[in-house]
Write a structure and sequence with these properties.
It contains 12 helices and 12 strands. By secondary structure, it is α/β, with parallel strands linked by helices. It has 2 domains: 180 residues, Rossmann fold (3-Layer(aba) Sandwich); 127 residues. The strands form 3 sheets. Strands 5-4-3-6-7-8-9-10 form an 8-stranded mixed sheet, with helices on both faces. A two-stranded antiparallel sheet has the order 1-2. A two-stranded antiparallel sheet has the order 11-12. Helix 5 links the parallel strand 7 and strand 8. Helix 4 runs parallel beside helix 5. The radius of gyration is 21 Å and the shape is globular. It starts with a strand and ends with a strand.
Length: 320
């Protein structure tokens, strides 16, 4: 596989990715590891592969859906193999798994004597970023966050990066994704995500509750007509349906936002409430789908009716 080449006259330790030396006149291909290649992780991996990087990942122990999403990436046997091969690791997991992923990467690096640059791209609070950096046990670290859809779904995802080595991740051969270096302080990129997600996902949470409430009172059409003055009801309903498929991972993200806002002197109660709201949606019928298979033509009334309705083992439905 051809790809971008990293080379230069410097042969001092730390001149290359992850502290690896660059040797004069020797060109080195950048190897990017994805942990793990779910909807967003695979999207970033394919974007870098399209740019010419060698992209490795593993689907060991993962679902058939993850294996399908990762098709086209170079799949290795396990996490140890990914950590050993990679110059840069991009960690994209559900927020509730971010710390465990860092611990697993540190253990794999110790077993394989590898020293990759690790960019945690998860939706977590700045205080959690500190815990993740500590868990990585000395590995070079970049704080990151993602705003937007996977590049394989829609171009334009913004990758916020902070920390002394943020420029190295920004310099990867991104194609449809846009890296933005926030600054040298780790935690800054995650702070951006906590603020933007509070608006984006908070609005979706508000709209989902409004739809369900309006449907229960048989006034959904009237409510949608009023809201149509400032938003497209079908687009908003589709956003709610897509969010339902990811609601289980939104719960810990809402709690991370609550912690971030509490650290800024605000009450955590608002986003603790959103966590409870998404927890209820995660138990609903629409949560059983996948983001990439949501029917974008589903009428808003159907979204509202199915959002909290759960299917029992006999195929009938009950409303909690």
């Amino acid at each position: 596989m051809s790809g971008p080449l990293v080379s230069g006259p410097c042969s001092l330790p730390g001149a290359g990715f992850g502290g690896r030396p660059r040797v004069d006149t020797v060109a080195i291909m950048t190897v990017v590891g994805i942990v793990s290649p779910g909807h967003m992780g695979a999207g970033l991996g394919h974007d870098l592969r399209d740019g010419g990087a060698r992209v490795v990942a593993t689907v060991a122990g993962r679902s058939a859906r993850t294996a399908r999403l990762a098709a086209g990436l170079e799949l290795l046997a396990d996490l140890d193999a990914v950590v050993a091969a990679a110059d840069v690791l991009l960690v994209v997991t559900p927020p509730g798994e971010a710390l465990a992923a860092a611990q697993a990467i540190a253990a794999a690096a110790a077993r394989t004597d590898a020293h990759p640059l690790v960019a945690d791209m998860n939706a977590v609070a700045p205080t959690t970023v500190d815990d993740i950096a500590a868990a990585l046990d000395g590995l070079e670290f970049v704080d990151g966050s993602i705003s937007g859809a996977p590049p394989t779904l829609r171009p334009g995802a913004r990758l916020y990066l902070s920390g002394p080595a943020a420029g190295q991740v920004a310099a990867l051969p991104w194609q449809a994704a846009k890296p933005i270096v926030v600054g040298p302080r780790t935690g800054s990129a995650s702070a951006v995500k906590m603020c933007t997600a509070s608006v984006y996902k908070g609005m979706v949470g508000l709209f989902s509750h409004a739809m369900v409430t309006a449907h229960a009172h048989d006034v959904l059409d009237t409510v949608l007509a009023d809201l149509a003055r400032t938003m497209a009801p079908q687009d908003a309903a589709t956003s709610v349906a897509v969010a339902a498929t990811k609601a289980d991972r939104y719960v810990p993200e809402m709690l991370q936002i609550a912690a971030t806002q509490a650290a800024a002197g605000l009450t955590p109660a608002l986003f603790e409430g959103f966590a409870a709201a998404y927890a209820a949606i995660a138990r609903g019928e629409l949560a059983a789908g996948d983001p990439e298979t949501v029917d974008v033509t589903m009428p808003p009334a159907q979204v509202a009716a199915r959002l909290l309705r759960s299917a029992d083992t006999h195929g009938t439905h009950q409303v909690p």
